[in-house]
Amino acid sequence: MGRAPCCEKVGLKKGRWTTEEDETLSKYIKANGEGSWRSLPKNAGLKRCGKSCRLRWINYLRADVKRGNITTEEEDTIIKMHNSLGTRWSLIAGHLQGRTDNEIKNYWNSHLSRRLYTIRRPIGEDPPTIVMDLAKIGGGYKRKGRTSRAAMKKNNINMNDSNSNNNKTLSCKEVLTEKSVGKSCESGHLIDSMPLQEESMRNDVELVADLERKSMILDTDMRVEERHLPAQGLSLDGGSRSLLSEIERSEGACLDGDSEMGILGPPCDLLETSMLFWDDIMGDGVLMLPSENSVVSEEKENGASSSYREGDMGLGSCTKGTSSEVRESGDMSSNGESGEWYSSCSTSSCFQDSHWVTPVDEDPNLSYEGEELLSWLWDDSDINGVVGKMVECELEDFSAWLLS
DNA sequence: AAGCATTGCAACCGCGATCCA
DNA sequence: TTGGATCGCGGTTGCAATGCT
Description:
Layout: H1 19-32, H2 40-44, H3 50-61, H4 72-85, H5 89-93, H6 101-115, E1 116-120, E2 128-133, H7 134-137, H8 149-154, E3 169-171, H9 172-175, H10 178-182, H11 186-192, E4 195-197, H12 201-223, H13 238-250, E5 276-277, H14 278-282, E6 286-289, E7 296-301, E8 304-309, E9 319-321, H15 323-329, E10 331-334, E11 341-344, H16 348-351, E12 356-359, H17 370-378, H18 384-392, H19 395-403
The protein binds a DNA duplex through residues 3-4, 6, 14-17, 35-38, 49-52, 54-56, 58-60, 87-90, 101-103, 105-107, 109-111, 142-149, 152.
């Protein structure tokens, strides 16, 4: 026997709520309080499912629901917390007063997940993981379809501002390797349609770096031993502490109370499989290491050898598929030349299973050579060739900046 | 002006967690 | 202890609105 329906569906209204329904629901809850959602519609005289009533109340009718644009500060918080928590929207919403999980989820799916794009390298290859802000990179990207409602209200959106200052525009088709485009993904079609401005590259990289630096700082907040924080000018506020508690609870098995780094310290022998992140490139000196309990899988096909931590894919989920599947799914990683691609969701994949964080200056072993990194960036053998080719747009500036 | 493509977001759905008799 | 009821969450869908051709 299947699960009983949450409510009697016959005769119930679905779809958008009317003003009258909103008023009825609001009046009833103000008079009787929240709860008893199953019986609420009947008692209130609404032809709605109890779940629908609850959703409507929580997301829109409650007095403390904050409407309007997500601010840049809120956006930062969402990005940071998503890095740490993944898609635990209700938890994230708990740290944004007046915002609902549904709103944040929608904002992420419609804005941030499209904008932030992670290019990652299988571990074991001294890999940077680079998060690129496609919206920024594609400064001249013209979107189709509706703009945000908030933006429409303001009626001042101008997606093409960056065009005006650029002399030469390269299409991404010219910039990306054929192979990369062929293995493009959801973001790929975005790239495909976006002109890439040489002039804006440096600014774009800096913007992304700044964005990621902020994320990294929060990750540092959450994961590094607290005694390291003052040296970085950081401290744990109340929200961070509670968040840390959540992380500890959810990742209990990953905590290593005996490690020399304290609450979330890294065993040094994990350095071999370390992952360098964008902030490393930026010189922030923060190294993230994989979690101890991550599974390392080996893929050796067609002569290509690489390893991948399956746990990287966000809260334990990992999908492996063909390029066409990846194309549908968003972020991606290659396992080399095997033709198989791993898809993941959003920037969180960089962090969620990277449980160990330490300032580089705490450990002299944690270093890398900029030249090697640049060499890797130039590698045209797989997806990273995308980066190489993008860098090609402004190689001199990028090289000077990278090695400075 | 019409039709199509695309987006943003409200709402729905299924399922696991929790409550409680 | 058990099982039904309820809650809460995250993923997904549907569609109105908008821009582009």
